[in-house]
């Protein structure tokens, strides 16, 4: 069943903007068709299209059910800003693998220093629809390395994917943890100073194996392991 993001209006749901264009002009849906609507809360709304207007569609809610795809743990990915060709993949895969929040941060070897928020928001919506999540994550502006370090203070467990580390990840570190931060570098990696600062902040430095992974592969690998050990 097709899925769209909309907003609540009294006891109905309104679909508009790019979602309306997709519903009306791309998919050519008709009044009476069934779909699932998300309004950025914890539920899936099973709806019938009551009316298709020029700029919006009005949906009747038939029933609502808890969204099964929402993450069970609070996992935040801190990703050093990568090249453009890796950005979309990182956004999509991290959301599909259950992150609750995503921050891109600047490092010494970051070439790109800003994010185009409209495109970022579009990628977030596409990924959430793909994996049937009913809540959108926030499209955060890129932050500095120091801001990233400061944010780590609120996480009981911080995992640092360190290409210079030899020790593998110990699954025991996840026991009893519901709020986890994960730090991954870009294609150029971290400077020696940055790596030392992250470890000094209390992060657990771990190896993802003897092969050096692309940053988007590292995201998929570490989040998959985290999900396996936490049941996220």
In short:
This protein has about 230 residues and is α/β, with parallel strands linked by helices. It has six helices and eleven strands.
List keywords for this structure.
30% helix; alpha/beta; six-stranded mixed sheet; elongated; five-stranded parallel sheet; 6 helices
Order of helices and strands: EEEHEEEEHEHHEEHEH
Instruction: Using the alpha-carbon principal axes, give the shape.
Output: elongated
Strand content: 25-35%
Q: What class, by secondary structure content?
A: alpha/beta
Oligomeric description of these chains: single chain
Kindly report the average pLDDT value.
95
Distance between the termini: 25 Å
Helix content: 25-40%
Number of helices: 6
Strand element count: 11
Question: What is the rounded Rg?
Answer: 20 Å
Q: Going across the major beta sheet, what is the strand order?
A: 1-4-5-6-3-2
């Amino acid at each position: 069943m097709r899925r769209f993001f909309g907003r609540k209006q009294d006891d109905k749901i309104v679909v508009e903007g790019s979602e309306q264009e997709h519903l009306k002009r791309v998919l050519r849906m008709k009044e009476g068709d069934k779909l699932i609507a998300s309004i950025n809360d914890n539920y899936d709304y099973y709806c019938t299209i009551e009316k298709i207007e020029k700029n919006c569609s009005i949906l009747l809610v038939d029933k609502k059910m808890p969204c099964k795809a929402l993450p069970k743990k609070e996992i935040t990915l801190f990703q050093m800003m990568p090249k453009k060709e890796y950005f979309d993949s990182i956004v999509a895969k991290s959301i599909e693998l259950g992150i609750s929040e995503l921050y891109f941060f600047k490092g010494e070897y970051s070439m790109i220093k800003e994010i185009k928020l409209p495109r970022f928001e579009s990628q977030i919506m596409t990924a959430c629809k793909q994996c049937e999540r009913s809540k959108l994550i926030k499209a955060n502006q890129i932050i500095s390395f120091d801001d990233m370090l400061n944010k780590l203070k609120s996480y009981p467990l911080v995992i640092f994917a360190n290409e210079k580390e030899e020790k593998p990840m110990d699954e025991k570190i996840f026991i009893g943890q519901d709020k986890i931060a994960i730090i991954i570098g870009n294609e150029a990696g971290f400077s020696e100073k940055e790596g030392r600062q992250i470890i000094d902040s209390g992060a657990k430095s771990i190896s993802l194996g003897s092969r050096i992974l692309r940053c988007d592969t590292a995201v998929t690998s570490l989040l998959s392991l985290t999900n396996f050990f936490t049941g996220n």
